[in-house]
Amino acid sequence: MIKTIIGILFFLVVVTIYLYLAVQSKKGALPVKGFPKLKSQEAASSPDGWRSGSQAAWPLFFAGALVALFHSFGIAIAGFVMPSPDGSHFVNVLLVSGVVVCVGLYFVAVSAARDSARHDKES
């Protein structure tokens, strides 16, 4: 039961972080220094490169928010509705898979931002 509550709260925090990143990157207003670590030579060299790079990352940040939201709903259903042994095991699966997918989407978003900034610089 406690694992279910912690999992739900964890993924709701992840949803909040990813939504913040998605909104800021869609506006092209991600900070150059700090979180997220999009810093690269291409992105830091010009404001346009930084803006295009952060705008390229927003759909992936938004996808991360959706993934985390669905995992929080799944954990709630598995933890509170499913019978005890099956529900607990399914909560474990959702926790691990959700963390793996959310972390993976973060790295893909950062890579997309860097590649977009590099492409913008070459053009």
Give the N-terminus to C-terminus distance in angstroms. 54 Å
- Topology as a string of helices (H) and strands (E): HHHH
- Shape verdict: elongated
- Low-pLDDT sequence parts: none
Q: Largest sheet, if any?
A: none
The tally of helices reads 4
Mean pLDDT: 83
Q: Rg to the nearest angstrom?
A: 17 Å
Q: How much helix is in the residues?
A: over 70%
Q: What's the number of domains? A: 1
Counting DSSP E segments of at least 2 residues, the number of strands comes to 0
The secondary structure category is mainly alpha
Strand content: under 5%
Report what the structure shows.
By secondary structure, the protein is mostly helical. It has one domain. It has four helices and no strands. It has helices at about 1-25, 40-45, 45-80, 85-120. Helix 1 packs parallel to helix 4. The longest helix is centred in the C-terminal third of the chain and has 39 residues, at about 85-120. It is elongated, with a radius of gyration of 17 Å. It starts with a helix and ends with a helix. The relative contact order is 0.20.
Element layout with pairings:
Layout: H1 2-27, H2 41-45, H3 47-80, H4 84-122
Helix pairs in contact: 1-3, 1-4, 3-4
Summarize the structure in short:
The chain is mainly α and 123 residues long. It has four helices and no strands.
Properties at a glance:
mainly alpha, 4 helices, 85% helix, elongated, 123 residues
